């Protein structure tokens, strides 16, 4: 009975912290807490709108169309062998956005967020060939790695940020296990993969 009451909460957490929100949340944080907050508000809103378009709206619509074409539910799409096409659709959309940012000579730290998110998607797609990982925890792990990396670059104390992110990570990971779409090992591997890939990408590029 208690588990039945918690299932709607787990579904809500999964929807709220969908992996596609990593780039836009990171972009908003960058515009708020770095020197990029001096950019014109109209420019920042345009970038956030474009980020939403290419990293959330377009991938979501493409994956939804792919799922509807096959008549699959979200549970059907959770199977490892059916996740490769959604990965490819997301990767293509992220790469298109990165190409546009390069063409428009966007500031380095802005494009680094998209590159990091793109590399996390690629790493998850490659890992999916052998082992299913949680893209939800890979995304929030990526946010963790990004915060740590930017704390080195901009010289701020990330403790409060990390405390909140780690708490949310635990809630999201628990939700994914309660919904029986991932095991504990898939949750942990996804989180570590996202964190390491994002940290190295932001630090090295």
Keywords:
mainly alpha
Q: Choose one word for the global shape.
A: globular
Backbone structural class: mainly alpha
SSE pattern, N- to C-terminal: HHHHHHHHH
What distance lies between the first and last C-alpha atoms, to the nearest angstrom?
Answer: 50 Å
In angstroms, what is the radius of gyration?
17 Å
Helix content: over 70%
Rounded average pLDDT = 87
Count of DSSP E strands?
Answer: 0
Stretches where pLDDT is under 50 for at least 5 consecutive residues are none
Q: How many individual helices? A: 9
Strand proportion, as a percent range, falls in: under 5%
Largest sheet: none
Q: How would you portray this structure in words?
A:
This protein is mostly helical and 205 residues long. The protein contains 9 helices and no strands. It is globular, with a radius of gyration of 17 Å.
Fold blueprint:
Blueprint: H1 2-16, H2 22-33, H3 41-70, H4 74-77, H5 84-103, H6 108-128, H7 135-154, H8 159-178, H9 184-204
Offer a concise description of the structure.
With 205 residues, the chain is an all-alpha fold. It contains nine helices and no strands.
